[in-house]
Specification:
The complex is a heterodimer of chains A (394) and B (368). Chain A is built from 11 helices and 14 strands. Chain A is α/β, with parallel strands linked by helices. In chain B, helix 1 (12-23) packs parallel to helix 2 (52-64). Classes of the chains: A alpha/beta (394), B alpha/beta (368).
């Protein structure tokens, strides 16, 4: 944040982009510390150092499993959410191919790019058939179509738990129920759900679940794939037998430990944190709705996770400009999901919900541990002034 | 101190321009305009997140401690610059896309966005100078004559001039590099970019083929002399520019040059070096950065980038400008710019549409 000293903004910047990433919490860093230097061993080694590392790794696995309501054998440590999504979709498809079957992939239109692009790559290579399920503000998500798309099977259905751009909570449990008695298995990307809404694989019968550490105050480049016992996923990369051969490569023990701590705390604190986040979000939503015309609260017809407020602002030519202007005012937010090239492409999520010619510019505010009422009020003031300025400029 | 938006291409000139503004105490915001998606090929995914220019500009901005953003102007750029480029070649002319970009896309867009962001000044790394006076601003050639880029800027909207800053205009290229090195900028040693930014293969014919698919400009035609005598075949007139010697085949008693391109008959007219010289230049799409010159005024005109200015007299000025050159000039090329100067100060310019060897069919161009 050094650039702020050059004088664009005199006050500290306000970070309202917790859905993009979060700072690592102290407990996580403390727990990781030992495995970065003192207990640096390779968990595959047979000696003392190896045993210490392996012990920590397996303890981390137990902790994650317990927090999710899973068995330890169902948790694989991977290197982030995107990798987890790819392993789930493509690894499962590959396992079907190895059985001589051509699988289907069913995705909702609002999935993360990691899921959509993985599905598209399998389709392009002729390795799977892909069905895209529309999601609409009025009709929601069509369970019948999902069910039909899974026959004759085998099929994998991917429905994210919480949408990263809008905070929409997708009806994962209803989809799971709808898949009962079909040959469809269910994957859910829960990257934005952990710690924000209850996530448990006991009471929601997903077969595969992806999560990432850096959205829950854990280390970047860490994540897990939950694979329910009995579901087969083939590895996408090959090497030593780590992670039961599913994700070879020397494990990042410190990362796994950090992930586990972050996950444990996120799930333990979920309820009170959700209450706090929801209050902040409502404060902002109410203020913007009251004080600014031409603002749509994206997805307000749906159940939403408490940490994301996505708004559509009319009368602005280029949504990117809005983010730039807010940044110059010291408010850190995102549009849809960020691309460093500033590509002026409209979000596939907003397009799915409101049509491809939706005239609104999207801003995503997302809240977290450090967010205060003052941050929200400051962001409201800045947003109103920036929007009014940009509307004049059009 | 006021806030400046500086266009950073990721090259050394605009990097140093940004650095100099920071050193002068301006509140600087760096931007890179994404004009074209280099990786937009089927196997490449859909993003441009790794463009070298963008990455370098970001690194320089971070080093200078200034914010940096990417503005996506692909749509406007395609319409105003690439489409025009293709259209001009199809008409047998040789376009100047950098002029189009500076005139239509870059500065206008930057000003609009800059004002919305609270920046009242726009800067770039062009080798030109600007002198702000009480009632007007004068655009002057860059101090480094070998680098002067004023030729590309005649189309600037005159109302923008008071808002523009060109920090490297007083420097030589060597000074710019030295400054970049002293600051340790990652772009200090970056080679000069010579290609047209939207023709990454370096061969504009690839782009024409991609955009036009089939067009007479890409079909074979005849190479003829002024008197109509056919002396060869060519593979498409879009591959030629006036003054070009290459690609005409051999076997002539003296060197042959392209004199003219006739899209209607797909003929490329060639002749000897003597035949290349023209006396009269017709210029359209005019833009003035000062009061327009009066009929009979003596001016300096630059007819190509890096060409020495030639003395000329203004013969006609309405929506067209007709210049009589004091001494005939070789290879006056339709589609290129004619840029007028009074000494070092730019008067304005336009697009060359015609060149004639004889003093003026002026009466043809006089409007009622």
């Amino acid at each position: 944040m050094d650039w702020l000293s050059t004088g664009n903004v005199t006050m500290d910047p306000t970070y309202l982009d917790y859905a993009a990433t979060t700072p690592m919490r102290g407990e996580v860093r403390d727990d990781m510390n030992a495995y970065l230097s003192k207990s640096f061993g390779n968990p595959s080694s047979i000696h003392h150092w190896g045993r210490v590392a392996e012990g920590a790794l397996e303890q981390a696995r137990d902790d994650v499993a317990q927090a999710l309501g899973a068995h330890s054998s169902e948790i694989s440590f991977v290197r982030g959410g995107t990798e987890s999504d790819n392993m789930a979709i493509l690894g499962w498809c590959r396992a079907q191919k190895l059985e001589g079957q051509t699988p289907s992939i069913v995705v909702t239109a609002v999935e993360h790019q990691a899921v959509l692009e993985a599905a598209m790559s399998a389709e392009a290579l002729g390795e799977a058939l892909v069905t895209r399920i529309e999601v609409s503000v009025e009709a929601g998500i069509d369970l019948d179509t999902i069910r039909k798309s899974t026959s004759p099977g085998p099929a994998i259905v991917s429905v994210m738990w919480v949408n990263n751009e809008t905070g929409l909570i997708l009806p994962v449990r209803n989809v799971a129920n709808a898949l009962d008695g079909t040959k469809g298995i269910l994957h859910s990307d829960a990257a934005q759900a952990i710690g924000k809404v209850p996530v448990n694989v006991c009471d929601t019968s997903v077969d595969l679940l992806s999560a990432t550490g850096h959205k829950i105050y854990g280390p970047k480049g860490t994540g897990i794939l939950f694979i329910r016992d009995g579901v087969t996923v083939a590895p996408l990369i090959h090497g030593g037998g780590q992670e039961r051969g599913l994700r070879p490569g020397t494990q990042d023990v410190a990362g796994a430990v950090g992930f586990a701590t972050a996950m444990k705390l996120a799930i333990k604190e979920q309820e009170p944190e959700a209450v706090r986040l929801k209050r902040l979000r409502n404060r902002m939503e109410l203020a913007l709705s009251k004080q600014l015309t031409g603002v749509r609260i994206n997805g307000c017809e749906w159940a939403r996770a408490p940490h994301i407020l996505s708004i559509g602002v009319n009368g602005i030519d280029d949504g990117n400009q809005l983010l730039v202007a807010l940044d110059l005012e010291g408010i850190a937010v995102s549009g849809g999901s960020a691309c460093s090239s500033g590509a002026r492409k409209s979000s596939h999520v907003i397009a799915a919900l409101y049509g491809t010619d939706d005239p609104h510019a999207t801003v995503r505010f997302s809240f977290g541990h450090g967010t205060t009422d003052q941050d929200v009020d400051h962001a409201v003031t800045a947003t109103i002034s920036v929007v009014e300025r940009l509307r004049v400029a059009v | 101190m006021s806030q400046v938006l500086v266009a950073m291409s990721g090259g050394v000139d605009s990097s140093v321009a940004a650095a100099m503004l920071v050193e002068s105490g301006y509140d600087v915001v760096g931007v890179t305009m994404k004009t074209f998606c280099y990786s937009e090929t089927p196997n490449h995914g859909k993003t441009c997140c790794g463009l070298d220019g963008i990455t370098d500009a970001k690194r320089v901005a971070a080093g200078l401690g200034i914010p940096h953003y990417v503005f996506d102007v692909e749509e406007d750029f395609t319409r105003d610059v690439i489409d025009d480029f293709v259209r001009e070649y199809a008409r047998g002319r040789t376009p100047n896309p950098c002029v189009r970009c500076n005139s239509n896309t870059k500065f206008r867009d930057l000003m609009k966005r800059g004002q919305a962001l609270g920046c009242d000044r726009i800067a770039s790394g062009h080798y030109v100078r600007i002198k702000h006076m009480e009632r007007s601003s004068a655009l002057l050639r860059g101090r480094d004559q070998t680098k002067d880029q004023s030729y590309f800027l005649w189309g600037l909207p005159v109302d923008l001039l008071p808002h523009l800053l060109f920090p490297v205009g007083e420097l030589t290229k060597d000074m710019v590099r030295a400054h970049a090195q002293s600051l340790g900028l990652v772009t200090a040693e970056k080679p000069e970019s010579q290609e047209i930014c939207f023709v990454p293969t370096g061969n504009y014919r690839d782009l024409l083929r991609g955009r036009l698919e089939s067009h007479p400009a890409l079909d074979p035609g005849q190479i003829v002399r002024r008197d109509g005598q056919v002396i060869g075949e060519h593979a498409g007139y879009a591959g030629f520019t006036v003054g070009q010697r290459k690609g005409l085949g051999g076997g002539f008693t003296e060197p042959m040059f392209v004199l003219d391109i006739l899209p209607d008959t797909r003929e490329v007219v060639v002749g000897t070096q003597d035949e290349l010289y023209q006396d009269t230049v017709v210029v359209e799409e005019l833009n003035w950065l000062t009061d327009p010159p009066r009929i009979g005024t003596a001016v300096l005109v630059q007819l190509r980038y890096r060409a020495a200015p030639a003395s000329a007299t203004v013969k006609v000025l309405n929506d067209k400008l007709i210049l009589a050159l004091l001494e005939p000039q070789a290879a006056v090329t339709p589609g290129q710019s004619a840029v007028l100067f009074d000494g070092d100060r730019m008067i304005g310019g336009g697009r060359i549409t015609e060149a004639a060897p004889l003093p003026v069919s002026v009466s043809d161009h006089l409007l009622p």
